[in-house]
Amino acid sequence: MVVVVASNNTLIKSGIQHIVTGLATDVAELVCDSSTSIMLGLEENRASVLFFDKSNTSIFTHALLKEIRIKYGDLKIIVISDLNAVTEISESINIGIHAYLTYDCSQEEIEKALAHLRKGETFFCSKVLSKVLEFDAAEANNSCAAIQLTQREVEIANYIAEGNTNKQIAEILCISPHTVHSHRKSLMKKLGVSSASDVTRYVFKKGLI
């Protein structure tokens, strides 16, 4: 696996490189003074995973993200950003990125994101998922046909998206695995989905498209 980091922030680049070293076959840093240099760097490094830092919005635009997604269909893209408006997150998701992290994410969350991508799954950190779920709930209040999630179901949806098992969720929330299973079953039934990836995908699509 070749991981490349597209960022013009030295601390972010160094931090990501430190975390993924040993988890990936190779880690490369792109020249990020223009969209052209980023595209050339992806070509030269034959990247399989891209960390796309949106801190510089003059270069790291959705237009560039879309161009990368179209040209490199097999490239796994991880967007790193702060928690902007939900529509900002939505646009990235609709382009077809595979993971969304914030600058506050822990090393464990970054490692989980890579692990999910290796298995062909998507990953969204808990802060991003919480923001979208809150938006989804607000939208639901304005619709007579809306799906209503309980606060506990929202919590469990977060932990599911983080890749936790029922046992791990039970330990975190100090409840029994059976209770987690019941909440999870109710959540899946309400959303009409059958997998953790489906939960995350539904949440974004339901509230953002």
Question: Can you offer a commentary on this structure?
Answer:
The chain is of the alpha/beta class. The chain folds into 2 domains: 2-123, 3-Layer(aba) Sandwich (Rossmann fold), CATH 3.40.50; 128-208, Winged helix-like DNA-binding domain superfamily/Winged helix DNA-binding domain (Arc Repressor Mutant, subunit A). Helices cover 56% and strands 12% of the residues. It is built from 10 helices and 6 strands, in the order E-H-E-H-E-H-E-H-E-H-E-H-H-H-H-H. It has helices at 10-20, 35-45, 62-71, 86-95, 107-118, 126-140, 151-161, 166-173, 177-191, 196-208; strands spanning 2-6, 26-29, 49-53, 76-81, 99-102, 123-124. A 6-stranded parallel beta sheet has the order 2-1-3-4-5-6, with helices on both faces. Strand 3 (49-53), helix 3 and strand 4 (76-81) form a beta-alpha-beta unit. Helix 6 (126-140) crosses helix 10. The radius of gyration is 18 Å and the shape is elongated.
Distance between the termini: 32 Å
CATH class of the largest domain equals Alpha Beta
Topology order in helix (H) and strand (E) letters: EHEHEHEHEHEHHHHH
- Total count of strands: 6
Using only C-alpha atoms, the radius of gyration works out to 18 Å
- Estimated share of beta-strand residues: 5-15%
Please give the largest β-sheet.
6 strands, parallel
CATH superfamily heading of the largest domain: Response regulator
**Count of spatially separate domains:** 2
Total helices: the number is 10
Mean pLDDT: 79
CATH topology of the largest domain: Rossmann fold
Low-confidence stretches: 140-145
From the helix content, strand content and strand pairing, which structural class follows? alpha/beta
CATH architecture of the largest domain: 3-Layer(aba) Sandwich
Strand order of the largest sheet: 2-1-3-4-5-6
The coarse silhouette is elongated
Q: Which percent range fits the helix content?
A: 55-70%
